[in-house]
Amino acid sequence: MRHFKVKAMVQSLDISAITGQQADAEPSKRSKPSALRRTLQALRQRLTKRNRPKPPDWFLEKFSNTTNTDKIGKGCPAMEDAALSSEIRGSSVLCNRLSVDPTLQSHYRWLAIVSLAVLYNIIFVVGRAVFWEINKSAPAVWYTLDYLCDFIYLLDTLVHMHEGFLDQGLLVRDAFRLRRHYFHTKGWYLDVLSMLPTDLAYIWWPPETCSSLYLPCPVIVRLNRLLRINRLWEWFDRTETATGYPNAFRICKVVLAILVLIHWNACMYFAISYEIGFSSDSWVYNLNGTRNNTLQRQYIYSFYWSTLTLTTIGETPTPENDVEYLFVVADFLAGVLIFATIVGNIGSMISNMNVARVEFQNRMDGVKQYMAFRRVGHELEARVIRWFAYTWSQSGALDEERVLAALPDKLKAEIAIQVHMDTLKQVRIFHDTEPGLLEALVLKLKLQVFSPGDYICRKGDVGKEMYIVKRGKLSVVGDDGITVLATLGAGSVFGEVSVLEIAGNRTGNRRTANVRSLGYSDLFCLAKRDLWETLSDYPEARSTLTQRGCQLLRKDGLLDEQIFADSQRVHDSIEGGIEKLELSVENLNMRLARLLAEYTASQAKIKQRLAKLEMNGGPGTWRLECEPQTRARSGRLYSLQPKRRPRSRPDATAKSSDAAKQNTL
User: Polar residues bias: where (predicted)?
Assistant: First the structure.
């Protein structure tokens, strides 16, 4: 028996090792002794029946992966859990610390540093390869900057290799998985090519040989550094998403692209002038003269010529040979295509910058045309125009509902809470209420703007909304419209009791005063329908708000206690009746389910009996055996059916009538 147990244990170990071979193939290559040690330790524990760990739960492993790797990344001590040790696959704690969260601000700053290094190579590698005076001016500075950029490239490769990615919505921090994911992408090819030590060509091609007689300069071997440009685009995308002025940033990015293209084209013009021969004709660069030999003159003239050619807005020297003609034609075509695209993009960006203003102006023009068509008075027309002007100056005619429509409800609620929660907490009836109720009500608030002299509500109107003053001054006036009874400012609330529909309210849920706007006022409005739709999900909060509304009415002497008590009793009786009705419906459902079950069982029994009868004998036997059952069954059916009188046949009726006549005669 002992032999069979040990054999079964060894077989289970072999099966587990075979199943885990594919998942742990690469880690086992890296740490075979540790894997062998863990296997022997597990075998010893199984044979001695000591410290036997529980089988790992795949569900818990899946959802605790991120937590475990986070703890390892933060340098927590080694853990004794066997599942965790198998999860990290033998990798060291130092390697697991190499995980970078791409959403952090530090990662964005690092991308900015890498972008500066890439931009340096884009501009100066090409320029130094053609204009020899740049290399001779400060060689030590250029060497320092070149190898500093190479060091940044090396660090960026390590960072790029360990950048986290999302797997099923969770950020992966395991260093081994990050490296494996990195090498499965196409970006690592460009990273490796951009770091190739092409500077070794300086050994047989020293940079000092660069002059007007030998072009291009040896620094041309560093062109592979331009392959890291994808990190520059990544930083541009991150900046465009994070900045508050995306259109202005897009314009700056396009201008930078134009300048780089003109710079490269100027370098190509200078290199072609060298190939053809400086000062050989009127098209190439004229190197004669002390002024033309300076770096400043060479670059400025080449840049000027490149700008005129690519933009096609000026006259350039006429080409004199085939190479010059081909280069100018290629420049013209490239200029037409590139700058047509660039100008179109800039035009769309500028139009997008003013799209809100144009849309607002169109709406205002439509209202003006309508008022002119309907012959509205000049005074009212001026008030409407002033309202439009105030709305634009305060919020830019921003439609919050349309802007936030693309966001999920959770994010919309969080934004609304940060913007409007302090305003909603100022309402007395909402003090100390459930946070969920306030979050639901925040989404229901709507901003309304009133012009000077507008009445927010009049005395006797049915209260359908409550108002919270955000900005401006309101006055409570008498019936004459002159006497000012009170003044309301920012944070004031009115109409909160009328939206609760409390029975016994002596005002009958109607407004008790006239409220008028002194100047331009911004008010948050909460409709009664929205409030009750939200309170339907919070019955406890509904009763609490009703009690607080009753307290406010009692304080002002506006609550009829008798009517309120009667309404509460009616409400309680209705609730009790509803509960009884629900109980009776549940009982009926149970009885109906029981009857259906009995009916189904009887049907199954009848089918079984018929099948047995068909299997036992022929038709005669079946007929004889079925007759008693049929009679009995027909007797049962007959007892359930209403009795009918037998109809007499017409012949028998005629005979009986003739016999009766003869007897009478």
Answer: 654-665
